[in-house]
Fold this protein.
Amino acid sequence: MDTMRDIRIRARSVKQTLQVTTAMKLISTSKLRKARRRLEDTRPYFEAIRETLFDIAEKATIDAGRWFDTRPAKEGKVTATLVITSDRGLAGGYNHQVIRFVEEHCPPGSILLPVGLVGKRYFMEKDYVLLEDFPVSAKEPSVSVAHDVAALASELFLSGKVDGFRVIFTHMLSSVKQVPEMIELLPLVRERLAPGHRASRSSVTYEYLPGEEALFDLLAPKFLKGIIYGTLVEAFASEQIARMTAMDAASKNAKAMMEHLQLLYNRARQAAITGEVSEIVAGATALGD
């Protein structure tokens, strides 16, 4: 049986762990709230870009645009995939789900652009081509990272180095369920550009200067940046929820362990007191004899 000193040391260690897990849960809660608020603030801007692109794409001159799938069909099309993971662990099965999803949809030899150290370190040891990696902000997703990714995706696609570009991230269905998801970004598809309130703009006609093609080339990367930024925020929010869940479970386990250690301590203390009383009684009896 452990001594009272051993139990006190273990209880102190568990208490420190409980403080850490509780603090990490609170931090993740704050990050989640801030990231979702920032996404809602920027959503109207990117939705306006989507509407403009769709309005231009409806015109016949854009049907054969270089942003759309007008390339001749061929076997073995090259597709680059942006994979969003985290820089740290302690988030339950968050990173494992994304990695398994990538292995199911991306055969060996595929081109990957990892976001986050966890995915980068894993895929470096596998049979994948890592084209470039991007950092993950410890505080919240960065629009500048989304801009860099969108610029690289546009350059790869327009130069013909890749035939498609997509992103794999974790979609937050609810506060208790997050699932990996894949979105095809390039080539663009007219139906995906259609806004949900298309009918409200059907009677409005716009004239674009200096030209529709030039404006489309300017706005398309911004549209991609908006989608990529949204997936970064979504993945970041899913990561924080996963970490909150993991830390909450760890905190509950730590509390249960502390209760168990307290019970063991009380038993050890009672046994020590009983032993001392027995020694005192035995000594008094010996003196009486």
Summary: Residues 55 and 205 are 9 Å apart (CA to CA). Residues 212-288 form the longest helix (77 residues). The chain has two domains: 4-20+248-288, 21-246.
